[in-house]
Structure formats: structure tokens, C-alpha cells
Amino acid sequence: MLAPLILSAIASTWMISTFSRNLLDKQSHQFGQAIADQLANTSIDYLVSNDVLSLNVVLDELLARHNFDFAAIYNPDSRLLAQSGKHTTSRQSFTGDINFQDTNLGHVLIELNSGSINERHQQIWISSLLLHTLIAVLTALFIWYYGDLAYLWITRTVDFRQPKPDKKSIYHQEVSTDFCSLLSVKIKPARLVPLENIKMACELYGGHLEAASSEEWMITFTSESQLFQSICCGLLIQEILPQHAGKILFKAGIDSGPIEDLSMLRKQASYLASVSDQNLLISERVNEKVYETSIDSIPISIESRQYHSALVTGGEVYVVETNDPIMQQQAKQVKT
Question: Is the confidence at residue 166, as pLDDT, over 70?
Fold first, then answer.
């Protein structure tokens, strides 16, 4: 996932490095030639008066600024008159003719200190590399903490342009909006209930939250993805609770059916929650609808198994569980 970003960082760093090197070379050439011309003009008076000692002083002062490694003045016959520093074969060398009243008195030769240019280029290269590394780290952290929400948004997006599947298709058709799913959540003690976090979980999965009592909440889902939303919301609330301070008793149940049977569905969901034991229970028909819809369509991995308890008086009841890291990341985000 980060491969395009890494390749882009390498290409960008190389381009910045090349551009900065060319720019520094151009500026250093302009600077070196300007100093060579200035030194040639300064040396005229000393050459006319044959003051070689002053020429050496001027060259020493020039090298004392640490911008140049070598400076020398030659007569018209290229005989050395004054010198400071050690001569090398540097490609950053500059010359300037010393002319006085149409007479050539000699020329100057200076060599630029390439170490300072290389050091400046290295600083730019390292800064660019650190900047791209910081961008890569921030991108990785964003994907780690918020990537699942983007994935969730994509999987929940409905493409209305797709034709409806044939009635004879083995895949289950989308649940009609004439149906609804009820999630009943019972938490004790009430003083430890993280209500704001539960509200955020409901908003994340499009559930309508209402208080049935001081220790029970009913969450209604009516969209086409209501089965997925109700199950994921219940599992998310369960994931939030264990990390809260104190011992909290969690019970939850889900039932689904026609909206006109809403009152009966509320009672059935509340009943499932009352017989659960720190887990999320679903009715037999919800379990059948989940697997008819294909459990792979749910963007988190879940498992359902039959729930056995002496409190279950009729029909089969199933417990839903998950160890998906997406759910753990969502719990962290909801609590922040």
C-alpha cells in the first residue's frame, strides 16, 4: 500500500537533489567569477607599485574567509608573483585578467572551496529525505488508525445502477426497507455505562438509539444493510466495554422482522439480551438471513455458533463473536 508513496519519495528526492546541485553550481560559478574580477581590480595598484608583500596579504585575507582553497597572481609571462593556499586540480577555478591602461599586468587564479558546496547539497538531500520519511510515517499511522473506516465506508456504499439479481439466483436479495433489526443492549451498573461512546458506535453504523430503561437501550436499524450494521454495532459496543474501569455486565440480543411487528421484535430482542452471558445473541431467523446473505459480505470476520443455556425456553439461539482487528481499531477510535 505504501509502495507508490515510497517510489514517489525516491523520485522526488532525486529530482530535488539534482535541481539543488545544479542551482548551487550555477551560484558558485557566478560568485567565484565575481570574486576573481574584483581581486584583479584590487591588485592593479599593488602591481603598478610592485608591492608583492601587499598582494600576499590580500590573498591571505581572501582565503581566511574559508570560501577558497587557493589564490595566486601571475605576471603576463605566467610567472608566479604571489600565492596563498595549495594549488589543486579543482574544477571550480576562476581567472581574471589584470589590465591597466590597455596594458596587461598579469592575471589572477582562484579555486573555490568545494567542501562547503558539497556540505550544503548534503543538507538539502538529507532534509528532503527526512521530509518524505515523515510523510510516509504519518500516512502509515493514518492507514493504521483510520483505514478501516474508509474500507467500511466503501463496503457500505450501495451501487443503485446494478441490476437486481434474478429471483432464481442462489444469492439472497437485499433486505427490503419494510424490515428492521432491533439490537437490545443491557449494561450494569448504569453508572459505568460509556454512553457517549455507545452513541458514537450507533452513529458509525446508522443505528437509532433510545433508552428502554436505566440499564437497557434499544437500537433500531432500517437500512438495507441492517443485519450487518446491527451485528457490527453490537460487537463494537462489546469491544468498548471491557477496557472501561470497573466490572461491567454486558448482555445483548438481535432480532429482525417486518416493521409492523416492531413491538414483538423489541420484546424478542430484549429476551435474547436477558438470557445472554457477556455476549451478543441473535435469533434463529437472523442467523439464517446472515448466512443466506453470505457472511463474506460482512467486512469483518465473524463466527456464530448455537448458544446453549437453561434460560432459553424455545427456538434456537446463536452467539456471535469476532477477533477481527478492525473491530479493535474502531473501538480505539470511538473512545478517543
Answer: no
Element (H, E) at 72: strand 68-74
What span, in angstroms and rounded, lies between the C-alpha atoms of 103 and 126?
50
| pLDDT of res. 159 | 40
Domain that holds residue 95: 3-116
Domain boundary pick from 63, 96, 116: 116
Do 193 and 318 have their domain in common?
A: yes
CA gap 108, 40 in Å, rounded? 6
CATH number, residue 62: 3.30.450
Helix (H, G, I), strand (E, B) or coil at 229: helix
- Which strand (E) or helix (H) includes residue 69? strand 68-74
Residues 185 and 102 in one domain: no
In a domain, 139, yes or no: no
**Alpha carbons 309 and 283: distance in angstroms, whole number:** 14
Smallest CA-to-CA distance from 221 within 206, 199, 203 is with 206
Looking at the structure of the chain, the number of domains it has is 2
Domain match, 67 and 209 both: no
Q: Does residue 271 belong to any structural domain of this protein?
A: yes
- How far apart are the C-alpha atoms of 83 and 55, rounded to whole Å? 8
318 neighbors 281 (Cβ within 8 angstroms) = yes
Q: Is the Cβ–Cβ distance between 221 and 206 less than 8 Å?
A: yes
Which DSSP string corresponds to 157-202? ---TTSPPPPTT-SSPPPPPTTEEEEEEEEEESGGG--HHHHHHHH
Q: Which three cell numbers stand for residue 30?
A: 557566478
The residue among 266, 282, 293, 255 whose CA lies nearest residue 175 is 293
Contact predicate 307/318, CB 8 Å: yes
Same-domain check for residues 61 and 189 = no
Task: Give the tens place of pLDDT for each residue, 82-139.
Answer: 998 887 766 688 889 999 888 888 999 998 877 777 777 788 878 888 887 888 788 8
β-strand partners of 281: 253, 319
Find the length of the chain: 336
Whole-angstrom Cα distance, residue 222 to residue 224? 7
The identity of residue 264, as a single letter, is M
